[in-house]
Amino acid sequence: MKPRVLIVDDSWSMRQTLRFLLAPDFDCALAEDGVSALEHARTHPPDIIVSDVSMEGMDGYELCRRVRAEAPLREVPFLFLSGHEPRPDTPESDLPYLVKPVEPSRLIARLHELVTTSRPVPAQTGS
């Protein structure tokens, strides 16, 4: 089963482009803003969230804070994908962050890395 990624971006074309690039490796869901992303994550928890930072209303940083505040979503990996450099003055500045434009292979590799490292290791059954 493919990992579920929630793509959050206020640009329709960016959402569609990311879905096109990620669909071979991920089951993609789309949200156009932070509010709809949070609602979607609550009802269909993703394995990872990829979010733009600059969005009207709830920006990516606020979305991340709200996701982290909810126990069922707290451990979902978060990757910021933005056209702007990260702001070092935010608590989220230590989270994974890629600046657009990003090479598709780099983005896909980073997402796989984040999903793999966030999943609990299955218990070994011995014989």
Automatic annotation (TrEMBL):
GO terms for biological process: phosphorelay signal transduction system. Keywords: Phosphoprotein. The keyword Phosphoprotein applies. Residues 4-115 form the Response regulatory domain. It comes from the Bacteria. InterPro entries: Bact_response_regulator, CheY-like_superfamily, Sig_transdc_resp-reg_receiver. It holds the Pfam family Response_reg. The modification 4-aspartylphosphate is found at residue 52. This is Chemotaxis protein CheY. It comes from Melittangium boletus DSM 14713.
